[in-house]
Amino acid sequence: MRLLKALFGTPGNALVSLLLLAFLGWLGQALLLWGLRAEWRVVGENLPYFFVGQLPQERLPQVLGFLGSLALALLGWLGGLQVVRVPRPRLLFLLGLLGSLLLLPWPPTLWGGLLLSFLLSGAAMLLAFPLGVALAFGRQARLPVLRLLAIAFIEGVRGVPLVSLLFLAFVTVPLFLPEGLRLPQVVRALVAFTLFAAAYLAENVRGGLQAVPKGQWEAAFSLGLTPFQAVRYVILPQALRAVVPALVGQYIALFKDTSLVALIGLLDLMGVARAVLANPQNVGLEREVYLFLALVYLLVSGSFSYLGRLLERGLGLGVR
Amino acid sequence: MPRLRDLLLQGLVLGLVAWGLLLLLAEARSRMAAQGIPFSFAFLSQEAGFSLSEGLTYAPGEGLRPFYPSDTYLQALVAGFLNTVKVALLGIVVATILGLLVAAGRLSANPLARALAMGYVEAIRNTPLLLQLFVWYFAVLLKLPPWEKALSWGGVILSQRGLVLPQVGLGGGAWGLALGLLAWFLLRQRPLWAWGALALGLLLGWALLGPPLVYSAPERGTFGTRGGLLLSPEFAALLFGLVVYTAAFIAEVFRGAILAVPKGQWEAAYALGLEGRDAFRLIVLPQAVRIAVPPLANQYLNLAKNTSLGVAVGYPDLFSVYSTVANQSGRSLEAILLVMAVYLTLSLSISAVVNTYNRRVALRWRL
User: Fold this and answer.
1) C-alpha dihedral, A275 to B307 to B133 to B114, nearest 10°
2) CA B217 → CA A74, A200, B167, B210, B227, distances in Å?
3) Contacts of B108 in chain A (CB under 8 A)
4) Calpha distance B276→A12 (Å, rounded)
5) Would the pTM of this model clear 0.90, i.e. be above it?
6) Which residues are CB-contacts of A293 (< 8 A; sequence separation ≥ 6)?
7) A229-258: per-residue pLDDT in tens?
8) Inter-chain contact B131–A297, Cβ cutoff 8 Å?
């Protein structure tokens, strides 16, 4: 009853509701009619290809084990932060980390499909972390040369499209390597993504650093800590804690951005979709494939946002 | 001696960075020289030899004109830059309007409008832009009927060849309208006179010089159209993709800004006797704009940078012209450095403009 009143309470509101309902009805009908006639076999036949690319079938259990260990490590980490309740979080984290390191599919040339999107964004985020934190401190440094260098790097990377960084890495990395050493394409893409992520990470971490009250520095120094100790034990933990939600958001954006590697011929989820569509059997099935892709991306991004909200609540951000 | 130590430290860092960069550059140069293609920008004045599907370039003495294969690489890049600017400017305007609409939907009292707007924002923000561009191009625009069976609807013609929109231009009567508007502005203190002058200008202009607006609906022939505005499928896909994607982010910026205005401001406005709409327009909106400007500028910057994804749907923007130039001339390194410098200049100028505006609308605290 309240819903009806909210929808049709005033004449203007009723008109808007009717128009939107008509639109929804038309959309639903069109989708249903199309969905019944669509050739979903193109998705079903290529399902493993979409998820792990050209990884040999016999290595699938290894990938599952790897993902399982990763989930275990994540659970342990969340438990350690007291976001979820698990027994022995530290042990779980270490076990998961060890398992995922042991089971990581190697070499990177085998990575493909959703697994590649996952690993590329995860590896870039991890590698960018030290660089990003250093840049964030550099940007706030008292010494003008350090500050200018950090600003030049951050603004330079943020001012150009990611796709141009990707192409730059592809063109230049081979020029700087010793003769005879050829880096696989995945690694070159990883270089570009790491630099890109570091610049954005630096800005996020800077926000966190600015949120730490100045008194914390003074308190740390008055306890006799060296500047390094003050950063390590007092400032950074508080700064990072404040930016955890922003970092989850950045990871989601990076995960979506990995789709750009399809433009340089890598077979990530998007690249696999293009390869499937290039198959003469599947000509004209763009709608089916792209809808499936959109659902996968939505599901992955959605679960990460959920995780982010969980973290935010668990850390008591904005409450404490 | 902390000052001396600071100086030494800075000198050391600067030296290390410079040494690293120089080492890399020297290595790249010698490697390129060994391959017989020394680092140089001389290729820019060579003949391009490829054609672009659309776009104007600059030629000395001729001004702006379509790009021909006999033009230079530099002129090709100029055409790409102009295409980028075109789609970016149009995209920013349309995305802002759509973003405002969606933000209104998200803040609406109507639960259906709220749910729809939220579904739109979540679906768009959680899928990659590249995927959305592919959907627009391959799954929507190229799936339109062929030219012979084009859909025609109120002067709009939809087909695989692109979109033909009716063109609206200014006619002779526009002078009368302009004079009427000027008179209306000058006499706006006395409404009766002002509206009378406006109507007089409009009618006189119409009677003497013709209609103020000329609407030319495209005519469909067997091979093409006459009149009207043609959007190529590539341009349309890039524009729609960028607009729909960025509008979702812009909607969130506006929504956040309006919600960030303290509730007390609404209450104060009501207490002064302002009605709902006036309270919003006179009290809340000016404060929300102030909050929205910096994040909005970020979204504009993102849109401008994302035009580089035109390469995915074959629209000849700066980046896709770059990739053709790099393939044809073999000068990928020089070309990408040039293109990145252009994007950087574009980004820095957008943020300079916004920063200036921001300084003007930002709160000034007077003591």
Assistant:
1) 140
2) 61, 48, 7, 18, 7
3) 16
4) 16
5) no
6) A50, A269, A270, A273, B131
7) 998 888 888 888 888 888 889 999 999 999
8) yes
